[in-house]
Amino acid sequence: MTAYPDAPLVVVQPDPRPHVVSLALRGDLDYDTGDGILDAVRRALSERGDARALLLDCRGLEDIDSTGLSVLLQVHRLAARREIGFRLENTGPALERLLTVTGTLEHLTSPAPALPSAETAQTASESPGSGA
């Protein structure tokens, strides 16, 4: 059970790179929270129609069950359908163990397609004709 049940399960994290949606998962990812987390990811992607990559930071993930793993796989498929790169970050030992045992570690943690760096984004915004 999540230590802070009223805290948001998905937190949008600022990312200096263009076209990157970065979300942090907090608390438990299980039968009780899975639908809410999936809805929050869908909302975040809908709000950023220019997204080319989705990064899920799992540092704040406390527990995950088989339903939670299913949610991660659904998020991966959602990103693939939208032709958006996907990657889990900061998975930690417990989540990595689950992903290894289920054969999904490489599938969910492989690097997203090449993304512009924050420096590239800054340079592009300062170039002539960019309106900066």
UniProtKB/TrEMBL annotation:
Transmembrane intervals:
none
**What Pfam families has UniProt attached to this entry?**
STAS
Output the InterPro entries linked to this UniProt entry. Answer: STAS_dom, STAS_dom_sf
What Gene3D superfamilies does the database record attribute to this sequence?
STAS domain (3.30.750.24)
PROSITE patterns per UniProt: STAS
* Compositionally biased tracts (Polar residues): 119-132
* Residue ranges, annotated region (Disordered): 109-132
Superkingdom to which the source organism belongs: Bacteria
Q: Which residues are in the STAS domain?
A: 10-125
Check the record and name the PANTHER family matching this protein.
ANTI-SIGMA FACTOR ANTAGONIST TM_1081-RELATED, ANTI-SIGMA FACTOR ANTAGONIST TM_1081-RELATED-RELATED
Q: What is this protein called?
A: STAS domain-containing protein
What organism does the UniProt record list as the source?
Streptomyces parvulus
